Design the sequence.
């Protein structure tokens, strides 16, 4: 849904009074330039569980960026560590596009999302209002047991850097329908465990039927979009 499809709310109208009340002139209503209008975004619900429960290992200012292909669509997502608050980390998740979809979340170190705010930022014109993002209970995940797993170490180039990656290739079989599929995951201790982790290592890549996730860059000095 793009910005023009959403219900807009203009700022409070400015009443300009020329002269005094006793001078007999009526007040004039000043129109608002459409480019200055903001809107209330349609806020998607958010699961109350985050993928990683090792967020105490992520330093404020760190960030990671992934390219995701899912259900035939492609998008880029950035996760940035904003600040630590008690035993929680504020994480900003930015899905690229026009508008950018920005979710600022407070997540306990063990992965429990306790609050979130949401904003949309178009390429031109003002950003939307900042709205609270409702949390919904996470669905229970049923994990299949692979028929076989192999692993190997690789050197992988990401964002101009060469890193050591441990790659796991799992084969799953459903004998009832004679179906077989593979999933390949890459993990590195050099990548912050933002999105998910395996023994403290951050996710580098995942390939499975219907989904592909690939780290494209990471670094430090993240500047949040929601202030």
Sequence:
């Amino acid at each position: 849904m793009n910005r023009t499809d959403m219900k807009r709310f203009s700022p409070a109208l400015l009443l300009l009074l020329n002269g005094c009340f006793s001078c007999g002139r009526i007040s004039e209503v000043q129109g608002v330039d459409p480019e200055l209008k903001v809107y209330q975004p349609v806020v998607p619900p958010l699961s109350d569980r985050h993928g990683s429960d090792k967020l105490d290992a992520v330093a404020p200012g760190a960030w990671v960026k992934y390219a995701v292909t899912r259900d035939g669509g492609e998008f880029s997502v950035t996760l940035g560590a904003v600040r630590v608050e008690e035993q929680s980390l504020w994480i900003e998740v930015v899905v690229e596009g026009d508008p950018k979809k920005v979710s600022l979340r407070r997540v306990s170190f063990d992965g429990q999302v306790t609050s979130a705010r949401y904003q949309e930022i178009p390429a031109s014109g003002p950003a939307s209002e900042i709205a609270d993002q409702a949390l919904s209970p996470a669905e229970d995940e049923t994990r299949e047991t692979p028929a076989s797993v192999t692993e190997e170490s690789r050197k992988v180039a990401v964002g101009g850097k060469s890193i050591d990656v441990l790659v796991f290739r799992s084969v799953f079989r459903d004998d009832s329908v004679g179906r077989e599929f593979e999933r390949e995951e890459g993990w590195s201790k050099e990548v912050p465990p933002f999105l998910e982790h395996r023994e403290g290592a951050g996710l580098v890549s995942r390939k499975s039927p219907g989904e592909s996730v690939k780290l494209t860059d990471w670094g430090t000095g993240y500047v949040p979009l929601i202030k």
Notes: Residues 41-136 form one domain. Residues 1-32 have pLDDT under 50 and may be disordered. The CA atoms of residues 11 and 65 lie 35 Å apart. The two ends are 24 Å apart (CA to CA).
